Amino acid sequence: MRQGRADEYAEFAAARAGHLYRSACLLTAGDTHLAEDLVQETFGRLYVRWGRVSRVGNPAGYAQTVLTRAFLAHQRRRSSRERATDVFPDLPGAADGDASLRLTLMAALARLPAKDRAVVVLRYWEDRSVEETADVLNVSSAAVRTRCVRALGRLRELLGEDLAAYSRP
Amino acid sequence: MPGSQHHDPFEERLAAALRDAGDGFDADPAALTAGGRVRGRRAQLLRRTAVLGGAAGIALVGVGGALLVPGGDSLGPDRSSAAAKPAASASATAAASFSGDDLLRTLKGLLPDGEFSQEAANGTRGDTPPFAHVVYDDGEGAAAIGVGFGRLEAGSREVREVTTCPDRALVEYDDCTSGRLPDGSLLMLYRGYEYPDRREDTKRWSAELVTADGQHVSLSEWNAAAEKGAPVSRAEPPLSLEELKRIVTAGAWRRVVDAMPEDRRPPATGAPDAPPPGAAGESIGAPLAGLLPKGLTVVDRGGQETEYAYLVIDDGKGRSLVQVNVQPDMSDVADQLYGEAETLPDGTLVATREGPGEKGGEGVLMWTADTMRPDGFRVVISAFNTGAQHQDATRATPALTVDRLKEIALSGKWEGLR
């Protein structure tokens, strides 16, 4: 990579690392090791094709797409080996302190199918539109809406309607 | 910006909760970007190295992708200095590391007598996968020979790509055979050309071995002193197919692969993979529940991701986990999955297995019926004598017999999930 481009890449990576990592943590429902791995994988791919990526105009969006797809590919590989269910963490009750609230939210996310979780993260963390989410996941807008409704229903069931305990006032 | 497009108050609150939760994860940007750079550079280097040549070289990009950190070379003792203890980062099966010289010595020891020059190699501790390369002359002319290593996920698409003969419509070659060895390894022996368009007559012959554990050894030879850019030095590469097979299957190479740094997960290469279509876990659970014999209680159910669902059932004798995978378009791996399968009159393949569980629970049995319709539509059902594979057995046998599993897997009710 030429020096100018390498600098540009380094600047981009440093600026986006924190956000991508937080996205990855939500996608993996709090598996921080897998999240780190996915972010490094994402940066690795961006590094190789940075010349093209930097010209598309929205490298941040591209990075998020790469991350989401890397996550789904990872999940799919796991499922294709007849993996038995992981033991789901119990949902701890909403207690005091941000840490346990986060654990509760992560445990609820963990109970969503991977694609539904990706929809929730893209829609409500990334604030992407239904159409943008559909593009990232390579599915129709209708499929995104269906997954979204289903995921919201499940989260309501698991976390309660008001959710007030899970965010700061 | 955040939350502005959501009208339902629950959506607003969810967005706020995700922001709070997400902000609680502290990243180490320097480590993440450094790790990404290492992976990116490794991919580039591998493309340039191209020691393995052709399709194999491409398939190996990204292989062995451990979580490498800069300076990782200093990790792990030398084999010579630590013969008795495992390398620091290695799993139980991993051996100590091998240096580039170790690999060269092994390769030269396996080759028939001759002259060697232009030796180059990477050991198992570098941040690129190991390889060894020599120019070998048996008296008939100098020939490049290279061996490279990787670790693939057994049964994966990469394994099929590496060991399947190329389509003659796409690549011109002289002959190619691919098959399974008695130990379960897949071996492809290939005689073709360095340049598929034959713009130069450099021949490349190769052997691609992938063991049942996913250890990949790639051995190539040319009838020139370099794979590209050197004049043809002899009519044919020096090693016969039998010799290629003998060398590629040498046990020493498998230990080299074992000594490569562990990856937490198999590598993914190339462009962002579009998620393939697949039936959602929840839609799979419903037919499964409907196909169970009467008198069973479903005590838990779930489907964490696409194509996969599970139920925990109880017939009065204790909990029994039943899981199902429904996967379209799996015909390309049929020969690997159904080696000894029964073929039904309509062409459906059925394999059954009774074995131990895979997740470490004490005394856990896993009974499986694995079926594939002629068009590649696969339904696999397993039942366990425990409610969770990680937990010890809670009953003598799974709540469903293998025959019953077979019957369920072959039901027409799965057709709706195509």
Please identify the structural class of chain B as seen in this structure: alpha+beta
* Biggest sheet features of chain A: none
Largest sheet of chain B: 7 strands, antiparallel
Q: What is Rg of chain B?
A: 26 Å
Number of helices of chain B: 10
Q: Please give the number of β-strands of chain B.
A: 14
Query: Which term fits the overall shape of chain B?
Result: globular
What structural class results from the helix and strand content of chain A?
A: mainly alpha
* Annotation, overall tally of beta strands of chain A: 0
Write down the secondary-structure element order of chain B: HHHHEEEHEEEEHHHEEEHEEEEH
Oligomeric form:
heterodimer
Distance between the termini of chain A: 47 Å
Q: What is the typical, i.e. mean, pLDDT of chain B?
A: 75
Summary tags:
heterodimer, A: 169 residues, mainly alpha, Arc Repressor Mutant, subunit A, 2 domains, 8 helices, 72% helix, globular, B: 418 residues, alpha+beta, Protein Transport Mog1p, Chain A, 7-stranded antiparallel β-sheet, 10 helices, 14 strands, RNA_pol_sigma70_r2 (chain A), transcription regulation (chain A)
Secondary structure topology:
The complex is a heterodimer of chains A (169) and B (418).
Chain A: H1 3-27, H2 32-48, H3 50-55, H4 59-79, H5 98-110, H6 114-125, H7 130-137, H8 141-159
Chain B: H1 9-23, H2 29-49, H3 54-59, H4 100-110, E1 115-122, E2 131-137, E3 142-151, H5 157-163, E4 173-180, E5 186-193, E6 203-210, E7 215-222, H6 241-248, H7 251-259, H8 281-291, E8 297-302, E9 308-314, E10 319-327, H9 334-337, E11 342-343, E12 349-356, E13 365-372, E14 378-384, H10 402-409
Antiparallel strand pairs in B: 1-2, 2-3, 3-7, 4-5, 5-6, 6-7, 8-9, 9-10, 10-14, 11-12, 12-13, 13-14
